[in-house]
Write a sequence for this structure.
């Protein structure tokens, strides 16, 4: 895709773009300030579901980023919305950190909703979910990311557990976070812009750039976070731009 | 495939065929006795890797089955053989029950060897394996089974974790148990028969019957264990015969 001529809104991935673990990436704090100063509207889109949005917000503020809590759109809240709108009875498989935000488990669940449980993934929990899937419950997954950049190196993301359950139960998950077109569309609607007025900045080729591309949004791929050489040479997913880091991407957007 | 005219050897899956959990399936004990009495040579082929062959042997004896320990061929021992023959330095991801049988972990592993860890699967362990795969270690998996029949219902098998690691690391595992052609070929070689002199009896359409079919061996699919309606109507995998249980299969083989 090509960069739009008149960018009004910027959708920004968090981990690997603005920060890694608890550390802001070099130059990211002032770059965000410049972007905001140029009058662009912003939305932070994250598939991180080990942490509630409120905690992410506090963490980002502590690193020096200027943002409001309402600007953060999480895959976990997208899942909660889907469950409520469809009147589903969820069996939540989520990290204890976000369990309260999601709500109680239904007594007789009719859907399995999977988030990133990190170290709380267990055989017993996965087997419980597997049995519900074999009984005909559909699988909703907050994300399908393969891995992310942790402070000590690449870390296995929840996509492994989605793929595993899909394989064993012979089902296909519905993803509600990135790269679901509805997730991007919700952000555009809240910002009051069309796809060709927005760009996305991310470090994940398939879920950030590919997802944005499918929603008609130009993507800027960063060489930070989980980026690995070759990510910018995919035959199917074409970033509108590849930049060394968030600051370099902002330079291109607001000069 | 068609049933051979002159069956000399029978390859027999264990869980879901002879027993479920610690219970022999109805009629299986006398049926095995009849099969042996008819002069057929036997091999028990199992992808179960939560339990060493010696313990499986004791368990089967206690249920009343007549067999010798040397007749049991396990995916775990196949993995150990592959590692030794190729001079690999393994990072073993296996159930504590079989860790001693497999041997020590290499200090600087050049391969990840995965078994069914059951409740011992952990995020930390999977992440360790994932990182080795991302550094270029190949993945050897003992099996890729989707699920098996446990005494309290269908249970998630190790295939889920193989599929998950494959997805996140972007690799493809080499399977050394069923349905690997080499696993069946090893059994035929030990028994001194050719593929068209053997049949396999199993409850797993893809790994038992499909695997045997790929090795040129006719498969008898049982309606016990993990069998689910529709398994006998696959477009790709054609059992030579479908039988209600092990005793019915033996009836067909030895009258």
């Amino acid at each position: 895709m090509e960069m739009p001529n008149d960018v009004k809104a910027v959708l920004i991935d968090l981990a690997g773009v603005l920060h890694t673990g608890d550390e802001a990436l070099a130059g990211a704090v002032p770059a965000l300030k410049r972007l905001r100063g140029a009058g662009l509207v912003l939305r932070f889109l994250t598939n991180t579901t080990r942490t509630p949005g409120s905690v992410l917000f506090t963490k980002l503020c502590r690193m020096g980023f200027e943002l409001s809590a309402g600007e953060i759109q999480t895959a976990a809240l997208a899942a909660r919305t889907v469950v409520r709108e469809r009147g589903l009875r969820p069996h939540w498989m989520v990290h204890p950190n976000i369990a309260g935000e999601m709500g109680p488990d239904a007594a007789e669940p009719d859907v399995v909703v999977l988030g990133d449980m990190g170290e709380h993934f267990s055989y017993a929990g996965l087997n419980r979910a597997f049995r519900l899937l074999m009984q005909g419950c559909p699988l909703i997954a907050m994300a399908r990311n393969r891995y992310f950049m942790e402070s000590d190196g690449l870390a296995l993301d929840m996509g492994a557990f989605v793929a595993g359950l899909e394989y064993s139960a012979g089902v296909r998950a519905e993803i509600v976070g990135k790269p679901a077109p509805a997730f991007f569309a919700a952000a555009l609607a809240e910002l009051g812009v069309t796809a060709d007025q927005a760009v996305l900045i991310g470090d994940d080729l398939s879920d950030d750039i590919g997802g944005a591309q499918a929603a008609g949004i130009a993507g800027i791929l960063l060489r930070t976070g989980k980026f690995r050489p070759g990510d910018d040479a995919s035959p199917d997913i074409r970033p509108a731009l590849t930049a060394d880091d968030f600051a370099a991407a902002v330079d291109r957007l607001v000069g």
